[in-house]
């Protein structure tokens, strides 16, 4: 797997992991929000709200009702009972009915109508919810003992007369009510308050028609709980207000369970995310720290010390395998290796070139100093006593001064040529020329030179023209360099053969001599303009730039040059030029 794919994979699964974490956290927040809403609704309408939630969440299939066990548990904790009655009056689902032995297994129409009207059944307060969500209607009945209602009925029987509290019992009942912070009101059919007994600091003084029903169904919206008993004979209604009992707030049991589960999952994910984040931070940070150390050492030029022994132990195992936390950066580390190796080689090559350049400059300084010293010496001689020298001596001095000047001009010319050729193609004037004729003329010039009589030159070429696109002047200089080198670096009697023709659809020039050849070191540095091959038993003339100039000319023509040579076995120079 490539580094791009590995990086994409690693960061993708991290993104997915943290996205899932955010989704879970969002779900938990949403569930907490809805749980708070439903819990407030249940608390506000308890126990009517509980019955509504049960009816909404119940499942009915094939005559069987399914209700969450959490609701069953809540009903049992509150001491309530629940029955679900089918359309035929049969109880098809019951919760916590065992302690209440008087509850029937089926109901008649009269019983159901009485329960619906009075909201009571025997000694129980009953709330009903008729549900039409399924094919057949179902009646949900939630009942619970009501001590306050029992107490109110007992007081009505003990202290009531013509629908109101007897006057002689008012003071006694008032003390009992104040002990519990309760309050008793008697209202007539027109909702006028007839009597008020007990602690009535927060009790409403007048009621509209729906106020009593609202207090009964939403007790949490008011300061007190109430129960009411209506005397059918007198039409009076006794209402008992009692303080809210201190108990834990009600919560939706199903959502409470789901919330706890999601919170556990979220905490687990967070606990997993923490070590994973630390591990990823260490995994991605440790290599970066290592790379920083490498860059620092590279900045100091310590290329051979970029990977220290300590770094090697961090990155690689004893068996040479890369450690897991660094495999993600495998290509980067390998590139570091290659780069540092190349930089180290470049640094060594730079040092070698500087050394060679210094040696070459030293040689060039020597080559310039020697002819200048000769010219300067003859100048002093001619300046001091010119009349003492004969014509022949004067001719010899002038000839020597000219030769030394020519040598210095040649040296300076080579410097200029190297600089010009390095500037690119701007100085080259390409046109179609006949390479056969150019090489033939170059060889013929050396054959006809009387000073070259001790050397033998042989030319072998094709009869038909070999046309190429080239700069004639620079190719002539190329041939001069090659032929002059064959003369300068070989003893008299050497044979120089020059061949011109075609090879692999390219123009080919070969210059072959049977001279003393070159050793491996000289051959290796032959085209280096900062290197001069020298022998202790020979004084070699020239600037040492001849072959460097030759190579530069060939490359400027998009060609190739190769040299083969062995000591005392001669030299072969082969040049290939495009047609």
From TrEMBL:
It is an enzyme of class 2 (transferase). It comes from Paenibacillus brevis. The chain crosses the membrane at residues 15-34, 261-282. It comes from the Bacteria. Its EC number is 2.7.13.3. It catalyses: ATP + protein L-histidine = ADP + protein N-phospho-L-histidine. InterPro entries: HATPase_dom, His_kinase_dom, HisK_dim/P_dom, Sensor_HK_Regulatory. Keywords: ATP-binding, Kinase, Membrane, Nucleotide-binding, Transferase, Transmembrane, Transmembrane helix, Two-component regulatory system. SMART domains: HATPase_c, HisKA. This is histidine kinase. GO terms for molecular function: kinase activity. Residues 363-579 form the Histidine kinase domain. The lineage of its organism: Bacteria, Bacillati, Bacillota, Bacilli, Bacillales.
């Amino acid at each position: 797997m490539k580094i791009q794919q590995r990086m994409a994979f690693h960061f993708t699964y991290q993104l997915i992991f943290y996205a899932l974490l955010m989704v879970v956290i969002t779900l938990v927040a949403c569930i907490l929000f809805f749980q708070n809403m439903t819990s407030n609704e249940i608390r506000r309408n308890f126990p009517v709200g509980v019955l509504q939630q049960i009816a909404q969440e119940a499942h009915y299939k094939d005559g069987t009702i399914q209700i969450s066990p959490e609701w069953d548990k809540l009903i049992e904790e509150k001491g309530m009972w629940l029955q679900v009655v089918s359309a035929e009056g049969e109880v098809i689902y019951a919760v916590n009915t065992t302690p209440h032995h008087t509850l029937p297994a089926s109901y008649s129409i009269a019983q159901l109508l009485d329960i619906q009207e009075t909201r009571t059944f025997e000694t129980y307060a009953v709330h009903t919810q008729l549900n039409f969500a399924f094919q057949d209607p179902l009646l949900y009945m939630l009942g619970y003992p009501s001590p306050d209602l029992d107490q109110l009925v007992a007081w009505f029987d003990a202290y009531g007369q013509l629908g109101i509290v007897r006057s002689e019992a008012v003071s006694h009942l008032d003390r009992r009510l104040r002990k519990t912070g309760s309050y008793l009101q008697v209202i007539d059919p027109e909702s006028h308050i007839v009597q008020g007994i007990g602690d009535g600091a927060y009790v409403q003084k007048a009621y509209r028609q729906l106020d009593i029903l609202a207090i009964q169904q939403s007790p949490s919206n008011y300061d007190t709980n109430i129960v009411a008993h209506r005397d059918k004979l007198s039409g009076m209604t006794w209402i008992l207000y009692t303080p809210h009992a201190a108990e834990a707030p009600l919560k939706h049991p199903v959502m409470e369970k789901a919330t706890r589960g999601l919170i556990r999952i979220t905490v687990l994910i967070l606990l997993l995310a923490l070590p994973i984040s630390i591990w990823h931070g260490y995994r991605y940070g440790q290599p970066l720290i290592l790379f920083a150390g490498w860059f620092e050492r590279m900045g100091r030029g310590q290329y051979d010390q970029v990977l220290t022994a300590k770094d090697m132990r961090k990155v690689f195992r004893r068996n040479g395998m890369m450690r897991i936390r660094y495999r993600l950066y495998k290509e980067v580390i390998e590139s570091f290796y290659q780069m540092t190796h190349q930089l180290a080689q470049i640094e060594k090559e730079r040092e070698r070139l500087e050394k060679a350049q210094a040696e070459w400059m030293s040689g060039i300084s020597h080559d310039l100093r020697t002819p200048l010293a000769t010219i300067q010496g003859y100048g002093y001689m001619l300046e001091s006593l010119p009349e003492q020298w004969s014509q022949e001596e004067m001719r010899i001095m002038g000839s020597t001064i000219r030769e030394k000047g020519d040598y210095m001009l040649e040296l300076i010319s080579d410097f200029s040529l190297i600089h010009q050729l390095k500037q690119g193609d701007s100085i080259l004037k390409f046109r179609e020329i006949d390479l056969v004729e150019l090489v033939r003329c170059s060889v013929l010039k050396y054959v006809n030179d009387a000073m070259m009589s001790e050397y033998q030159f042989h030319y072998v070429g094709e009869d038909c023209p070999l046309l190429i696109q080239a700069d004639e002047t620079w190719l002539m200089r190329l041939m001069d360099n090659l032929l002059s080198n064959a003369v300068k670096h070989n003893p008299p009697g050497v044979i120089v053969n020059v061949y011109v023709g075609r090879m692999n659809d390219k123009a080919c020039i070969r210059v072959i001599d049977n001279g003393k050849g070159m050793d491996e070191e000289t051959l290796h540095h032959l085209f280096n303009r900062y290197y001069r091959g020298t022998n202790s038993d020979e004084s070699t003339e020239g600037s040492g730039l001849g072959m460097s100039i030759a190579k530069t000319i060939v490359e400027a023509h998009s060609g190739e040059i190769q040299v083969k040579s062995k000591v005392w076995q001669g030299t072969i120079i082969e040049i290939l030029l495009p047609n």
